[in-house]
Design goal:
Layout (H helix, E strand, L loop, with lengths): L1 E4 L9 E6 L6 E2 L4 E7 L2 E6 L4 E6 L6 E2 L4 E7 L18 E10 L5 H10 L4 E5 L5 H6 L1 H17 L16 H25 L3 E9 L4 E6 L2 E11 L3 E3 L12 E2 L1 H4 L8 E5 L3 H12 L3 E5 L11 H14 L2 E3 L2 E8 L5 E7 L2 E7 L1 E4 L3 E3 L13 E2 L2 E2 L12 E3 L10 H15 L13 E3 L5 E5 L8 E7 L4 H6 L5 E7 L5 E7 L3 H13 L4 H5 L10 H10 L7
Length: about 550
């Protein structure tokens, strides 16, 4: 049975059931509208999460409901089929629609662009073939960070005695960890639906494909033909595959499947030591899984400063995570008892590792599947849409943002690119700058970088400060790590930073602003940082670029 509850909305005011669109015994499908509720921000639909039959309706029109109140019970998949002998229904003609701005894709790039365009008075239609929020909110950033939060709390709970707190029989329930993750995802994706309604953005569910430079067809529960003044392509990315023998066997999972495992494997081999691979390596290791990482490049996270990579490798080794670098996976095979055998070339010899599951984390590639881009004049290179710094393609009224451009595969970059694209549609000159783009890797400890990450001794001056000399880090009992601040010799400006340590994900914001606003170490030295905070490491590193650090 599936229980549909009232959504969590950004208000404590009760909502009122305005209409009930189904009755007892009705067959419903996922995404079908069940109710409408009147909220303080306007009318909001409540949709089904599953296919099934309505078994109980627990509210009536006019009832007040709060977040989490049960509204309807659906028996999943019961009778939700169509009789085979039912006469075929004649295909209806596509409904014609028009938009000032059409957005294809409802991820963090697309939905932000849609909201921003609507706020600027444009009539907006957004097309999404799956769920609002895209990869990031549904099977990427948010669910992984939710698992990481549970993993980190479990790690801390095992060491409570160090804080003078006694606790026995510390354990975890992985099913509840996954359930909490699902709840967080649902709240956020439902919130995007709320924002679509708030800004009068029409959302169409279906696959959008170009018929020409001027027209898009949408194929979903209904068919639409959309004319537009401008269109923003925000279709994101998809799992990359390398053609390794056995890469699609049943024991091989991607990050999407890893987020929905019902039970933990006893052992896991991670193919790929990049961001996704290392985050999952730390997650599964925290929950007691035996983890091996195989990386083709000479080091994990190979775009980062070598000092950061070395420290993370050392920390991983202490935790029992085994890492092989400069290693090429040759095949994946399964034994009769469903164990996965990964064979890889390492140090001039053939190596083998066995595990219950294999996580395939070799990256992602631009997603233009089914988009009909070949029906347009849009330029594509190596499977990605080519854009300039205004997010403009070579076609006058067609823009592209996010992973589909293969520029930066980061949700926050996609969102900013969406704003840039809309600004240019509005006639406001706005170009993307990638000089101050922060990036965070949620291992333990966290890693954050911005700007230049690999200093050149001929061009740069560097200053480092250890978290071991930071008071708040000692309070937290998390003293591993450091910050490296990078200054350009010629201009005297801060141009980059690498941070590995507690709160790196928030500390990097200060340096990002410093780079964007073209600050030198003098401006940072003249800034008062609150004490005690982990952010004080920025001030100390800035001092190190000048007169010298105070506490090291």
């Amino acid at each position: 049975m599936s229980i549909i509850k009232m959504l969590t909305l950004p208000t404590k005011t009760p909502s009122v059931v305005g209409s009930i669109e189904v009755k007892l015994g009705d067959t419903v499908v996922a995404e079908q509208e069940l109710f409408t509720v009147e909220t303080s921000k306007g009318k909001r639909p409540i949709k089904s999460d599953v296919d099934g039959i309505v078994k109980e309706i627990k509210v009536a029109i006019g009832d007040e409901v709060l977040a989490g109140d049960e509204m309807i019970i659906i028996e999943e998949n019961a009778g939700a089929t169509v009789a085979e002998d039912k006469a075929p229904v004649a295909e209806k003609a596509a409904e014609k629609k028009s938009a000032d701005v059409l957005v294809i894709g409802g991820g963090p790039g697309g939905y932000v662009a849609a909201i921003y365009a609507a706020m600027n008075g444009k009539k907006v239609i957004l097309v999404e073939k799956e769920r609002l929020g895209g990869t990031c909110l549904n099977v990427g950033c948010i669910p992984t960070k939710t698992l990481i939060e549970s993993a980190n709390l479990y790690e801390k709970a095992k060491n409570l005695s160090e804080f003078g707190i006694n606790a026995e029989n510390i354990s975890f329930d992985f099913a509840k960890v996954i359930k909490r993750k699902d709840g967080v995802v649902k709240n956020l994706t439902d919130g995007i639906g709320f924002l679509m309604n708030k800004h009068n953005i029409e959302v169409l569910n279906g696959l959008a494909s170009f018929e020409s430079d001027e027209k898009v067809l949408v194929d979903g529960d209904k068919k639409y033909e959309i004319d537009f003044e401008n269109v923003i392509i925000a279709t994101g990315s998809k799992q990359a595959y390398l053609g390794i023998e056995g890469e699609k066997l049943g024991s091989v999972i991607t990050s999407t499947e890893a987020l929905s495992l019902e039970a933990l494997p006893k052992s896991l081999t991670v193919i790929g030591g990049g961001v996704i691979g290392m985050e999952f390596a730390f997650i599964f290791n925290s929950f007691g899984v035996d983890v091996n990482v195989i990386e083709y490049a000479p080091d994990i996270l190979c775009t980062l400063d070598s000092g950061v990579c070395k420290l993370l490798r050392d920390i991983a080794a202490k935790r029992g995570i085994k890492i092989s670098v400069s290693s090429k996976v040759e095949s994946i095979k399964e034994t009769e008892n469903n164990m996965a055998i990964v064979t890889y070339a390492c140090e001039g010899k053939s190596c083998v590792v066995a595990s219950e599951k294999v996580l395939y984390a070799v990256g992602r590639t631009a997603n233009i599947d089914g988009l009909g881009i070949e029906n347009t004049s849009v330029k594509v290179e190596r499977g990605a849409i080519v854009v300039d710094d205004k997010m403009h393609t070579n076609v006058e009224n067609i823009y592209a943002i996010g992973d589909v451009t293969a520029k930066w595969q980061l949700a926050h970059v996609a969102s900013h690119q969406g704003i840039v694209a809309v600004d240019n549609i509005l006639g406001h000159e706005h170009e993307m700058s990638y000089d101050a783009v922060p990036s965070v890797i949620f291992t333990h400890p966290e890693i954050a970088v911005v700007g230049v990450t690999k200093p050149n001794p001929e061009k740069h001056v560097v200053s480092s400060f250890d978290f071991a000399a930071n008071g708040k880090s000692m309070v937290m009992n998390e003293t591993e790590g450091f910050i490296t601040l990078i200054k350009d010799k010629e201009s005297g400006l801060i141009v980059g930073a690498s941070i590995i340590g507690p709160d790196a994900s928030t500390t990097v914001n200060v340096v990002t602003l410093a780079i964007k606003e073209k600050m030198s170490e003098k401006e940072l030295m003249a800034t008062i940082f609150p004490h005690p905070t982990t952010g004080e490491v920025v001030h100390e590193a800035a001092m190190g670029l000048g007169i010298g650090t105070l506490h090291q």
